[in-house]
Amino acid sequence: MGAEMLQEQVDGALVGDRPVLMPPGTYRVRFDDWDTVNYFNRQPKVVCRFTVCTEGEWFGAKLERWYNVKALTGKPRSRGRFKVAWGQDLAREYLPLVSGSPRRDGIALSKLKPLLLDAEIETVTCDRRQRALDPVLHYSVIRSIRLSPDVAQPI
Question: Domain coordinates of the chain in residue numbers?
């Protein structure tokens, strides 16, 4: 009877990985890859994936940075193509990262792969409607990226 009492009936399963929750702050990251998606089947976005390179408990943690873009070129996919305006966050964060003058006609996210970047990590405590989330549902996101000033960059 004791073992039966300890087991609870499970009606639904939690799917996917639990989002990372780490202390807010600046962490060194590396760029891994990107996908293009249509969020809720209408808002085109680029999802950039990063891995934490700062030594310690969070080394190897995977985080994403979601960017709004003007349009997708072709179907949403891994390493998909897109159109971004000069004033959007993706352009504002990418252009200072690439050395020299950028191409005037586009962005090559693959140029970020050899770079070590500093990412500002924040904790999400409210949903998109500004309703407070229970602490068990809090998660970390990247708010901004920039070049690590104390590291010699390969580009």
Answer: 20-147
